[in-house]
Design a protein that fits this description.
Elements (H helix, E strand, L loop, with lengths): L4 H31 L10 H14 L9 H13 L15 E9 L5 E4 L6 H16 L3 H16 L7 E10 L3 H5 L5 E11 L8
Antiparallel strand pairs: 1-2, 1-3, 3-4
Helix pairs in contact: 1-2
Length: about 200
């Protein structure tokens, strides 16, 4: 039994670190949602909420530089363990809904609009998660690369187009009263990129 005591101590320590990471990510997501201003909390509480968000983020290295080895190792563990996503589900408000639109331009001056095409509901759910991740990415180069890959996939169905503009934006939800009056959601463009294609398929 004494030989197993060190192993048990290490396992308990690892379990404690894992639960601490879950709690920190959950609290950071909760404080961030409360700071969005869509609750009954007074704006004067923003200072305390900001401090709580910073403290919970510091526990998992979020305040370090993205190039810091400690933060990269922590993010690797959070992603691998599935902690990074999913623990902010019980936020006190409905999350934003994002949408990407493709604007194809042809040599004769024509232009047409298109949305991403998915094969089934499961793929559609993955696309929704992908667009949510695109908005939260802190690295603009990675964000642009992801949207470029979506543009390339969409261009395969429009090979005659020489230019495509990718518009990434947020869908604004309307109130229940406005919905009953017949109003639909609004679209707020956030990011736009232009890509030029030749007759030969471009390399990704």
């Amino acid at each position: 039994m004494k030989a197993l005591q060190p192993c048990r101590t290490v396992l308990l320590a690892l379990a404690g670190i894992h639960l601490l990471a879950i709690s920190a990510v959950s609290l950071q997501s909760t404080f961030g949602a409360l700071r969005a201003g869509r609750t009954i909390l007074s704006p004067s509480a923003d200072v305390c909420l900001q401090a709580g968000e910073n403290f919970s983020g510091a526990l998992v290295g979020r305040l370090l530089s993205p190039k810091a080895a400690t933060r990269q190792l922590t993010e690797l563990y959070l992603q691998g363990a599935g902690i990074e996503r999913g623990y902010g589900f019980f936020a006190p408000n409905v999350p934003d809904n994002f949408k990407v639109v493709f604007e194809f331009h042809y040599p004769d001056g024509r232009s047409e609009y298109s949305l991403p095409v998915v094969g089934d509901a499961a793929t559609g759910l993955r696309l929704v998660n992908l667009l949510d991740n695109v908005r939260s990415l802190p690295n603009a180069e990675v964000r642009e690369l992801m949207l470029r890959m979506l543009a390339l996939a969409a261009w395969q169905d429009h090979p005659e187009a020489t230019r495509v503009r990718v518009v990434f934006g947020r869908m604004g939800l309307v109130s229940l009263v406005a919905f009953r009056a017949g109003e639909g959601p609004s679209y707020e463009p956030l990011i736009a990129y232009d890509y030029h294609f030749s007759s030969n398929p471009p390399q990704p």
